[in-house]
Each structure stands twice: as structure tokens, then as C-alpha cells.
Amino acid sequence: MYQRLPEWLKTKVPVGANYARIKSDLRGLNLHTVCEEARCPNIGDCWGGGEHKTATATIMLMGNECTRGCRFCSVKTSRTPKPLDSNEPEKVAVAISKWGLDYVVLTSVDRDDIPDGGSEHFAKTIRLLKKKAPHILVECLTGDFRGDLDCVARVANSGLDVYAHNIETVESLTPYVRDHRATFRQSLKVLEHVKKIKPSLITKSSIMLGVGETDQEVMDAMKELRKIEVECVTLGQYMRPTKRHMKVYEYVTPEKFEYWKKVGDDLGFLYTASGPLVRSSYKAGEFFISSVLRKRQQELGVGSGIAEVRE
Amino acid sequence: MRGVRVTINFITPEGDKKTIIANKGESIMDISHTHDDIELECACEGSLACSTCHVIVDPEYYKKLEEPTDEENDMLDLAFGLTETSRLGCQIVMEKDLDGITVTLPSATRNVQLKGSKLS
């Protein structure tokens, strides 16, 4: 009746000085992370840093209340989240420059209650961060802004280096798994638009496995991403965050994830990260992407993600 | 915290009946989450942003419920297997006059079962 969590999904409890330090920095500035709100199993690993890794967290902008209710996500949902903190962009820049990172990922909740979906707030955060710490590579994982491509452009033009937006699952399961306002095709349009208006940006998407998809559907989804020139894809196991969320359909084996890694490579993705605990923000991927970006910068003889800093 | 006790019957998607003694003031969503044997998702935790807590109310009791708000109706429209007596579980709050209510957890809901598991 109760299927135990497979061994390969068991993770350590987060402890240690780095973990405590990051936590205190975040709380001190009243910042949120997707790591905590969405209960990522890798939190101990990322926040803990360690021998050769810098401790890092993925800050979640615009509060910890999302206007959407996706079945797989434990981030709080509200029709009327608290108003945006106009000091957040500055606080984020302060926190991140303090952490001594060379690559950072920012994400946000969906804010369908705000006319521009929070895209200006997001863009401002990126600009300020780039101004304060121009050497840091910035990856942003955004929502779909309800398909409003002007909002997408606002973020895409803000100076970031990697633009990520998740399709989350295969096309046929999207209506069952994601919030009703999200669609597979809308998400593809977001990614396609980013590439169209700023070809120098690396685009990225992620898929959760284990929610009832077939192999063919996964293959088709990956092909759709390749068609719109998405360069990076990550595949990870869906893990049920709480009893209030949808059940896991299948625990996909590490071997199967290896198979998908090979499929991604064969399809021509620049980088495919695939494993049970792999999530959109994946440390090893960052090393690879960083080296690609820095190489491109050298070739172009310019800084990355060029944008006028107006602040 | 003890309050006025009321009885609620759940019919699971497999057709099993489970009777729960709940407190006045608890929503069906609350009740399902304090009882391990009642599986009811509530992805948006009662903020009317999804339809995963959709239940089918027995007609006699359906009449006793307050009219759904526009927001609830919007979300109900998205529910799978919608019926004439469907409501969102997060919006049904147990009162004395709902004592003995029966709600059915729809089998048409896309609640994926763990592959290979025995249905309980």
C-alpha cells in the first residue's frame, strides 16, 4: 500500500555553518527561496556548499505566495498575495554579492494579480545585480506571464545570461498537472520568443518524470524544445511534496534517467542534465554553461547579456 | 480543540465508505488531511485556484449548502467528472445541519495511482 521512497532518492538532512549562514542572510533581508518553499531535496547539498562547491540558494522573487495552484508544487497559493517589496531588487543584490558566487539562479512565483506579471520587478532585480556584481552569471527561471511576450521581452532584455522557463511535463498531461492558466504551447512560445529577440541568450527548460507520461511523449516534448532551439534541458523525478499534492505515478530508475541524458545529447542539446534528484537549477550544469558563456564572451570581446544599465 | 461533533461519510473512488467524526467548522479539505485514509488533493490549499478537491455531494445535503461563489464556480468548471451536485471540498464547512452528509471522491479525477501499487 505504501511504496517506500527508493534508496536513490534519499537525501541528507541539511546542517552546518554554510546552511545556517545562508538562512540567516535570507531571513535578515526577508527574502524567500524556492528551495524552502517547494521543499527541494537538494537543499542540504546546495546550501551546504562543501569542499569544492560554493554554498548557494535560489532566491524566489515577489514573495512566497503564488497565484497559481499546480498539483505538484507546495509553494503557497493565494488569489491576493502581499504587494511587491520595492526594496527587494536591492536586497537581492546585497545578499548575492555577499555570497561570493560566480553563478546565481533567480526565480519567482507567478503573479497573475499584477498587470505586468511582475516582469519589471524581475528585470530591475537583474539589472541591479549585474550593476553591483557584473562578473556574476545570472540565470532566471520565470513563469509564463500568461503568454504576454512583452513581459517576457522585458526580462530577456534585462542583462541576464540564461533564460529558463519550465514546460514541467509532457503536452498531454499539462492540463492535469499544471495550473489551468498554463499550457504546453504557451510555455514553448515563451522560450521561442526569448531566442527570437535575444539569440545570444542560452535558453533552458525542465521536465518532471514520474507523473504518468509515456516515453514517446517525453521524446516528443524534448523534440519540441529542440525545434525552438532551447539549448539546455533538465529531467528529474517528481517527488510529492505533501499529502495535499498529487501522487507519484512512477519512480523512474537512475538507469532510465541515463537513457534520457543520452537522448538529449543525441537530439543536440548543448547540455542535458538528467537524474532523479536533478532540478532546473543544477550545479554541475552551471559549470558547463559558465564555460560556454565565458567562451562566447571572449569570442565576442564583450560582457555577457548586454543591456543598458539605467539605474 | 473539541467542538460540536458531526458525522461525514466519504465514498472513495474504489467505492469504499468511510465514516469520520469531524468538528463543526472544519472544511472537507481539513478533514481529509487529518485522516490518512481519505485521499483528497488540495493543490492550492483552499484559495480557489484549482479544482483538485472536487467532491460530489449527495443531493439531499447539496441543497443545504450555501450557493457557491463565482470564484468557486469558475474552478468547478475545470473539474473532471463534474456533476450537478459537485462542489469544491475546501468550500464545504461542516455545520450541524450537515451532520450525516455523504460526499463521493470522483473516480474521474486524474488522481494518478502509484504504478504497480495495490489499490488500498
From TrEMBL, chain A:
CDD domains (alphabetical): Radical_SAM
Subcellular location: Mitochondrion
Cofactor(s) the protein needs: [4Fe-4S] cluster
Broad EC category: transferase
GO biological process: protein lipoylation
Pfam families in the cross-refs: LIAS_N, Radical_SAM
Coiled-coil ranges per UniProt: none
Major place of residence: mitochondrion
Pathway: Protein modification; protein lipoylation via endogenous pathway; protein N(6)-(lipoyl)lysine from octanoyl-[acyl-carrier-protein]: step 2/2
GO cellular component: mitochondrion
Gene Ontology molecular-function annotations: 4 iron, 4 sulfur cluster binding; lipoate synthase activity; metal ion binding
Cofactor binding description: Binds 2 [4Fe-4S] clusters per subunit. One cluster is coordinated with 3 cysteines and an exchangeable S-adenosyl-L-methionine.
Reaction(s) catalysed by this chain's protein: [[Fe-S] cluster scaffold protein carrying a second [4Fe-4S](2+) cluster] + N(6)-octanoyl-L-lysyl-[protein] + 2 oxidized [2Fe-2S]-[ferredoxin] + 2 S-adenosyl-L-methionine + 4 H(+) = [[Fe-S] cluster scaffold protein] + N(6)-[(R)-dihydrolipoyl]-L-lysyl-[protein] + 4 Fe(3+) + 2 hydrogen sulfide + 2 5'-deoxyadenosine + 2 L-methionine + 2 reduced [2Fe-2S]-[ferredoxin]
EC number in record: 2.8.1.8
This protein's UniProt keywords: 4Fe-4S, Iron, Iron-sulfur, Metal-binding, Mitochondrion, S-adenosyl-L-methionine, Transferase
UniProt binding sites for [4Fe-4S] cluster 1: C35, C40, C46, S281
Family per similarity comment: Belongs to the radical SAM superfamily. Lipoyl synthase family.
Protein name: Lipoyl synthase, mitochondrial
Provenance organism: Gigaspora margarita
UniProtKB/TrEMBL annotation, chain B:
One Gene Ontology cellular component: mitochondrion
Species in which this protein is naturally found: Gigaspora margarita
Family matches, as InterPro entries: 2Fe-2S_ferredoxin-like_sf (IPR036010), 2Fe-2S_ferredoxin-type (IPR001041), Adrenodoxin-like (IPR001055), Adrenodoxin_Fe-S_BS (IPR018298), Beta-grasp_dom_sf (IPR012675)
UniProt keyword Iron-sulfur, yes or no: yes
Family: Belongs to the adrenodoxin/putidaredoxin family.
Cofactor: [2Fe-2S] cluster
Source species, domain of life: Eukaryota
The 2Fe-2S ferredoxin-type domain, residue ranges: 6-109
Keyword Iron-sulfur part of the UniProt annotation: yes
Listed CDD domains: fer2
PANTHER family, per database record: FERREDOXIN-2, MITOCHONDRIAL, FERREDOXIN/ADRENODOXIN
Any one Gene Ontology BP term: P450-containing electron transport chain
The name this protein goes by in its record: Mitochondrial matrix iron-sulfur protein
SUPFAM superfamilies reported for this sequence: 2Fe-2S ferredoxin-like
MF (Gene Ontology): 2 iron, 2 sulfur cluster binding; electron transfer activity; metal ion binding
Keywords assigned: 2Fe-2S, Iron, Iron-sulfur, Metal-binding
